[in-house]
Amino acid sequence: MAIALLGYTFGRSKLTWPEKFINDTFGTLQGALYRPVGAVADFFRDLSRLSDVYKENEELRQTVARYTEDKIRYNLIAKQNEALQEELNFTERQKKLYNYKFLIAQVVANSSNPYDPTIKINLGSHDGVKEKMAVTTVDGLVGLVSRVSEFTSTVTPITELSSTSTDSISIAATIFGREDQSFGIVDFDKEKNVLQMSKIDENDVVKEGDIVITSGLGNVFPRGLIIGKVVSSQVGDFGLTHTATIEPAAKFDHLNDVFVVVTPDVDAP
């Protein structure tokens, strides 16, 4: 019958009405079945694509994480290199000026105790550190070594040094650029909570913005270390001298790396 039907319909371009009816009926059924089957197939294809998207997102997250980590590491290294370069330039410049040796130390403790506001560094007698060695940063003078252990040392900041204390440690200072003309004594006024340069000659005009440095007199602090900047000047005792208020150059709340200054007259390690 199939062969007969094929032979009967072969070569004809038009269909009879029973053929049309059967063709339309199968077409309708096929369309009704195709839509849900296609929807199910699309659903599973979407699940497969969703899995691929999830994997791609995970890979992107890992890539972003690695990028962020590399960027942080790069920034830290760049910042460290910049700081080391600045420190190198600082030490080389100071060596040429005054032939000092600088021991680079790290601050391991910064006491906030008002009765013992000291700084501890990770260098000691084993590294050649001795008492009364000056400690500075790239920015300015920090203090003086007060106690030395084998591998650590305690530094008393300049805000705790006073010419009126029992130790009577004062900082002989001068003005940068006028070293042969200006002279004064720098200590910390605890009542006013400011750093002051006193005993300035009445004929010595100290102006706002002048840079105050150590003069080297007194054989305690080496010459040429920056102390700070003058923010104001006023008449001192009995109108015979002047007093200048100084803003410290060192950032005491952000101390990380410091230098212990070894002068030529002190035995090097």
Summarize the model shown.
With 269 residues, the protein is of the alpha+beta class. It folds into 2 domains: 20-98; 99-262, Beta Barrel (Thrombin, subunit H). Helices cover 33% and strands 28% of the residues.
Description:
- This protein folds into 2 domains: 20-98; 99-262, Thrombin, subunit H, CATH 2.40.10.350.
- The protein has 269 residues and is an alpha+beta fold.
- The chain has a 6-stranded antiparallel β-barrel with strand order 1-2-5-4-3-12. It has a 6-stranded antiparallel beta barrel with strand order 6-7-8-11-10-9.
- The chain has helices spanning 2-9, 17-98, and strands at 101-110, 119-121, 134-136, 141-148, 153-157, 171-175, 184-189, 194-201, 211-214, 226-235, 241-248, 257-262.
- The model has no long low-confidence stretch (mean pLDDT 77).
- It has 2 helices and 12 strands, in the order H-H-E-E-E-E-E-E-E-E-E-E-E-E.
- The longest helix has 82 residues, at 17-98.
- Helix content is 33%, strand content 28%.
- A hairpin with a 4-residue loop joins strand 7 and strand 8 (194-201).
Task: Summarize the topology.
Layout: H1 2-9, H2 17-98, E1 101-110, E2 119-121, E3 134-136, E4 141-148, E5 153-157, E6 171-175, E7 184-189, E8 194-201, E9 211-214, E10 226-235, E11 241-248, E12 257-262
Antiparallel strand pairs: 1-2, 1-12, 2-5, 3-4, 3-12, 4-5, 6-7, 6-9, 7-8, 8-11, 9-10, 10-11
Features:
2 domains; 269 residues; alpha+beta; 6-stranded antiparallel barrel; Thrombin, subunit H
Average pLDDT taken over every residue:
77
User: How much of the residues is beta strand, in percent?
Assistant: 25-35%
Provide the succession of SSEs.
HHEEEEEEEEEEEE
Placed side by side, the strands forming the largest sheet appear as 1-2-5-4-3-12
Q: Catalogue the unreliable spans.
A: none
Specify the helix fraction band.
Answer: 25-40%
CATH class of the largest domain: Mainly Beta
Largest sheet: 6 strands, antiparallel, barrel
Strand tally is 12
CATH architecture name of the largest domain: Beta Barrel
CATH superfamily of the largest domain: Rod shape-determining protein MreC, domain 2
Helical stretch tally? 2
Gap from first CA to last CA: 115 Å
Shape: elongated
What structural class is derived from the secondary structure elements?
alpha+beta
Alpha-carbon Rg, integer: 41 Å
Give the CATH topology of the largest domain: Thrombin, subunit H
Quaternary structure: single chain
Structural domain count: 2
